[in-house]
Design a protein that fits this description.
Mean pLDDT: 89
Distance between the termini: 54 Å
CATH topology of the largest domain: Trna Endonuclease, Chain: A, domain 1
Shape: elongated
CATH architecture of the largest domain: 3-Layer(aba) Sandwich
Number of strands: 6
Number of helices: 14
Low-confidence stretches: none
Largest sheet: 4 strands, mixed
Number of domains: 2
């Protein structure tokens, strides 16, 4: 297949970039010595290497490969780059990202794009020495191991909190159960690094606690009543939030949920600044079915976009 005029003109681009990647020749007795001739032979196009002056010879090699064995063009280019990485490293002049970018541009002009040359990790590695890359791999492996250990620890602690939650549900002394619930929630928020604050008082009111997520402060109110909550406790909680700042948010934890009338009334005529978490929501978090931070992000988005204070767990796209 004859080369087009565009290809004929463009072939000099990659030839110029690749010229410094490898020597043009070498003595046949040199063990392990790589040059353009040996790489071309490995790619199955050795007969297209004419020898002689290096730059014209590279242009001929690329042109002949494109014209007569186009399917081998990618293997040839990648072979030159791979051997060039080792050769240039030994020469103390490692191949730079800019050279690969320039080569990619010329290859695109020829109508090709080779994914290996665009690989993000490969291109990033060109900025580093072998020692730096090795150190980075060790650091990444350590970070991954720490993350896995942290996730395993969190799962174990969630299981303990879940068992405690079931015990509190069955406890006869509901006042004591409520106090233990506050501790459970505090431990849960600590487990997700939300910097919780235990219950505190300000002038004229009691706050069940607070936590911080993505630089936002959330006040907490927790109620564990036998029946679904009426509107009044929600209105009181909304007043506590509105009395702090325009950017304070809240999470009302109503373990037995809130009444239908309260769900309607709490949003009528007002922009809600909090959302309700019920017992099923809490159980799903303690069961590790969803991360607490993901839960918060999803519910805040629904609050911000749709003004929804109460959303059944099954209606949220996790």
């Amino acid at each position: 297949m004859a080369l087009s005029l565009k290809e004929t003109r463009a072939i000099s681009g990659p030839a110029n970039v690749l010229c410094d990647f490898l020597p043009g020749s070498g003595h046949s007795s040199w063990k392990g010595h790589e040059n353009f001739a040996t790489v071309a032979a490995k790619a199955g196009v050795g007969n297209y290497w004419p020898g002689g002056s290096k730059k014209p010879a590279i242009s001929t090699l690329l042109s002949q490969t494109l014209q007569y064995k186009r399917a081998s063009f990618e293997n040839l280019i990648l072979g030159i780059v791979q051997s060039g990485l080792l050769y240039r490293e030994k020469q103390g002049k490692p191949i730079a990202t800019g050279e690969i970018d320039l080569l990619n541009g010329h290859i695109i002009e020829l109508g090709f794009k080779f994914p290996e040359l665009w690989d993000r990790d490969f291109r990033a590695s060109l900025h580093q020495t072998t020692t730096e890359r090795a150190r980075e791999h060790v650091e990444q492996a350590d970070a991954k191991q720490r993350q896995q250990s942290a996730e395993a620890y969190r799962s174990q602690e969630l299981a303990k909190l879940k068992d405690l939650f079931f015990l509190l549900n069955a406890q006869a002394d509901r006042k004591q159960a409520g106090l233990m619930l506050e501790r459970l929630l505090n431990q849960l928020f600590q487990l997700f690094d939300l910097n919780p604050r235990r219950p505190f008082s300000v002038v004229g009111e009691q706050i069940d606690g607070s936590f911080e997520h993505k630089a936002d402060i959330y006040l907490i109110e927790a109620k564990w009543e036998k029946e679904r909550l009426p509107e009044a406790p929600l209105l009181v909680f909304r007043g506590k939030i509105e009395g702090k700042s325009t950017f304070t948010r809240g999470v009302f934890i109503a373990l037995n949920d809130v009444s239908d009338e309260a769900k309607d009334a709490i949003t009528r005529g007002k922009a809600p600044s909090f959302f309700v978490m019920n017992g099923y929501d809490l159980l799903m978090i303690l069961s590790d079915a969803v991360s607490l931070t993901v839960f918060l992000e999803k519910r805040v988005r629904l609050l911000g976009e749709e003004g929804r204070v109460c959303v059944p767990f099954t209606e949220v796209h996790w």
